[in-house]
Specification:
- By secondary structure, this protein is mainly α.
- It is built from 16 helices and no strands.
- It has a single domain, classed as Ammonium transporter AmtB like domains (Ammonium transporter fold, Orthogonal Bundle), CATH 1.10.3430.10.
- α9 runs antiparallel to α14.
- About 10% of the residues have low confidence.
């Protein structure tokens, strides 16, 4: 029986592999006559794979939240982050993609020409349309790029959700996330990545340190201040798991690294593989420097190495290096990463002493390290101006703080922040209460 299963599996795998190879060969032959047809196929496949690996960000945030927060069952935590991802993807499809892609050159407000309520990537089924798209500088299929945008768009919302997990009613979290993901954050990405005024003045944010991490960290800081302290865990608190938090942070690091690889591909130069490889190598070296700096400083301060703090330092080094990772000397990479590790270590301790509750270390990892990376990039990249970077940091922080404050005030006044009792108990199916009623027992006859 085992031999038959092995032979069947091998034949099935061989057939599947052959079919994929033949399909890819046929697809490549169909567009072989077009300019840069192979680059189009490889670029589309690369963007799709990086988007799929980027979904590890959602898994990492959920696992780290289970390990850090000791309130409620793990199923409730997973449900929260999956719901956040679904809200972001729906908002991006309905409204966010239009706001991001329809901002005119150097503008502030999206243009309403050719407006439609939901985003529809252009069809390239005809060879003429594909040829014109490649001639205009397209590097991948529009549907693949839209899928990658969906994954990238959920990063700032998940950062904000990780900071206030277990403190606010889930309905209020989803409403505030819908407002931010549907309007405020897409406009910000359009300013920096869609040809808006930040792009025109020369603001550089190649890997999303400002548009993703600084925006998400600013929204998380505003949410922490509005939410206040976590309610006391009176109903069967769960002990935090250092192993779960560390494993979730590792998944988060891998997912962010995949998204950085996708963001580094712009199609403006021939040696794309060399550019992506150089950028990822520098990001990893910066993470190494941040890890050693956090190990050294945490050992001095706490007389032991904190697992979550060290891995957060690695993520902080990634965030600090993601501004312009291909235009930096090797020794400068380690310096930027080491300062990022020190910022995470001191930031987590400083926020705790100030009474700002951030158990996962979201604010120093994403907000503080993003500011450091955006400002230090002007030192090693001659194409970046410090005054422009300072102005961009101020615009992003002000817009994110204002948007987050308005969204959370609306959610609090509409639905409230008080956690229901069901948030700390096992989840139940939302059937009507009449289905849960027990059958009435017949009354006992009196003797």
């Amino acid at each position: 029986m085992q031999s038959f299963a092995r032979s069947f599996f091998r034949r099935w795998l061989a057939t599947l592999t052959g079919s994929v190879v033949l399909w890819g060969t046929a697809s490549a032959q169909e567009i072989a006559s077009l300019p840069d047809g192979s680059a189009y196929v490889l670029g589309s496949f690369f963007i799709l794979m990086m988007g799929l690996l980027g979904l590890l960000v959602l898994v990492g945030f959920a696992m780290r939240d289970i390990g850090v927060n000791g309130v409620g069952p793990p199923s409730y935590r997973i449900l929260t982050f999956v719901s956040l991802g679904g809200v972001v993807w729906l908002a991006q499809w309905l409204l966010g993609a239009n706001l991001q892609n329809f901002i005119p050159a150097g503008g502030l407000v999206p243009s309403l020409e050719n407006w439609f309520f939901w985003h529809r990537p252009p069809s390239l089924s005809e060879p003429e349309a594909l040829s014109d798209y490649l001639a205009a500088g397209g590097v991948a299929d529009p549907s693949a790029l839209f899928f990658f945008q969906l994954v990238v768009a959920m990063v700032p919302i998940l950062i904000m959700g990780a900071a206030i997990s277990g403190r606010i009613r889930q309905t209020s979290v989803l409403v505030a996330s819908l407002i931010l993901a549907g309007f405020f954050f897409p406009v910000l990405r359009g300013w920096a990545w869609g040809g808006g005024f930040l792009t025109v003045i020369g603001f550089v944010d190649q890997g999303g340190a400002g548009v993703l991490h600084l925006a998400g960290g600013s929204a998380a800081l505003s949410a922490c201040l509005i939410a206040g302290l976590r309610p006391p865990e009176k109903e069967h608190p769960m002990p935090p798991s250092a192993a779960g938090a560390a494993l979730g942070s590792l998944f988060l690091f891998f997912g962010l690294l995949a998204l950085e690889a996708g963001l580094l591909m712009d199609g403006t130069s021939f040696n794309q593989i060399a550019i992506i490889a150089t950028g990822l190598t520098n990001i990893l070296l910066a993470a190494v420097g941040a890890v050693f700096a956090a190990l050294f400083l945490s050992t001095i301060m706490q007389h032991r190495a904190d697992e979550l703090l060290v891995i957060n330092a690695a993520i902080g080094g990634l965030v600090a290096m993601s501004v312009s990772p291909t235009e930096i000397p090797m020794m400068m990479v380690l310096f930027v990463g080491m300062i990022g590790g020190l910022i995470v270590t001191l930031g987590m301790s400083g926020l705790q002493n100030m009474g700002v509750q951030d158990p996962a270390g979201v604010v120093p990892t994403h907000l503080f390290c993003a500011v450091w990376g955006l400002l230090i990039a002007a030192l090693y990249d001659p194409a970046i101006h410090l005054s422009v970077q300072i102005g961009g940091v101020g615009v992003i922080m002000a817009w994110s703080l204002l948007a987050s404050t308005l969204a959370w005030i609306f959610a609090k006044t509409s639905f409230g922040f008080a956690l229901p009792k069901g948030a700390r108990r096992p989840l139940r199916w939302p059937f009507p209460k009449i289905l849960h009623r027990r059958r009435a027992r017949p009354a006992k006859k009196r003797r």
